[in-house]
Amino acid sequence: VTALGHVAIVGTGQVGTMLGMALRASGDVGGVALFDVDPAAMEASMARGAGDRALTSAAEALDADIVILAAPVPAIVALVEALGPRARPGSLVMDTGSAKRAIVEAMRTHAPGAVHAIGGHPMAGTETPGAAGARADALAGATFALCPVRDDPTALTRAGALAEAAGARPLAVDATEHDRIVAVTSHLPHLMAFALAAVAGSGSSDPRLTAALTSTGFRGATRLAGSDPASTAAFLSANADQVRAAVEALVTALDELATHLDDRDAVRELLAAGGAARARLTGER
Amino acid sequence: VTALGHVAIVGTGQVGTMLGMALRASGDVGGVALFDVDPAAMEASMARGAGDRALTSAAEALDADIVILAAPVPAIVALVEALGPRARPGSLVMDTGSAKRAIVEAMRTHAPGAVHAIGGHPMAGTETPGAAGARADALAGATFALCPVRDDPTALTRAGALAEAAGARPLAVDATEHDRIVAVTSHLPHLMAFALAAVAGSGSSDPRLTAALTSTGFRGATRLAGSDPASTAAFLSANADQVRAAVEALVTALDELATHLDDRDAVRELLAAGGAARARLTGER
User: Is A281 close to B236, i.e. CB distance below 8 A?
Assistant: First the structure.
């Protein structure tokens, strides 16, 4: 028997597939069973090596020692409502959604206290949706946020061990704090990328001329707009209040820059402050 | 004698260095002379192989068949004012600035009609300032915008040949049209990246927690905020009116998204439109 026991992953998109691949490669799990409501998605994930067994229903996942819900945020909430009350005492139930309050609240309400429930957010991935976008090593060194549901050290320990097995660094953080920060560091960048692409596409110019005048900078700045609109909309909506606050802060910063555009020195100072903040936060220069 | 003759590049930052490296590698130029007001910058550029000869003044560049002004935008305008009247009849004078109206107007005013003057904007590069950030192959397949100063087919032909020698695709475009489109496709992405970094850095949260909760998405979305604040401020200011219009369009798009955040389907539709625009403009999916 391996350290972490048997794992079941419900939802085999990019995140679920990435986790399955990383966990199987670690040798720390007894096996990885997969389920997805879309048989084609499950087959694609199995073909990438994310699991050793395909389940025929989400409920079968409850037989595992660790149940990982890796669907879009609203689907995770629905799964918690449906499966939480039937989860096995002693099993670990976690998820991978990028907005955590709604999920943690659902776990608190619907998972009995004897179940070790905890929210999770592996902070790595690619913009390519589905199993095709999964990379087994994407989690290497990445933060795996863990948001407690209750005072349950066992849940935190076991979920932390799973995150480490996948190559990530577990980080315990309150769900509200997580949602507030991630609104700026992840959800807002997604929103901006889509908005920039829409603005570039809606101008009155010849689209071919606009396309010719896009550089590597534009491609990079809009890369997140290659994300799946449905699952992106799902996490933006699940964190609507904090994302709205982040948009307001961004608009204030943009307005300040726009106001000073004629004053090169003032613009340079504002930009320098942003560049310094980036260097501090990312460690990149 | 090679096809394009002797080239002199004034300004040996990333762009001037990249061009010098690409032109020398092409074998289509007789030689590349370099000048920079900063001797260390010129040495670094020579060390990267961007030139075969170091000049001791910008005026010496006028001896070349092709003079390329590759400084920040306001410095290019100043160079055109200073050197334009003394440029040799029959020589080609061009530049690499990313905002073109002010430069093209200066060329029209200060370069005699016997000089083949034309604005240029090679649309590729990296975020690393200086010669260290130059990549000889960065221009491969990239657009090299050429903005006519006068009705001068010779200027267009010779500048186009130079762009092709550097591996790029020449594209003739009116300076006003260029500035309007590039305000959205390049200048706005720069502004957004710096603004996002500033917002993330100015929150009330523990900076270490914020840093831990940044993912690859944030790094990518703020990559352009690694650009040099001074030269970025220079081109933003030189294109202030169009950048301001681009910011307004972006704020409108952000506000529309923020307004609909509670309505997942509406958000998804707005995002899908942005994603489709990106796919059209970049050819990426």
Answer: no
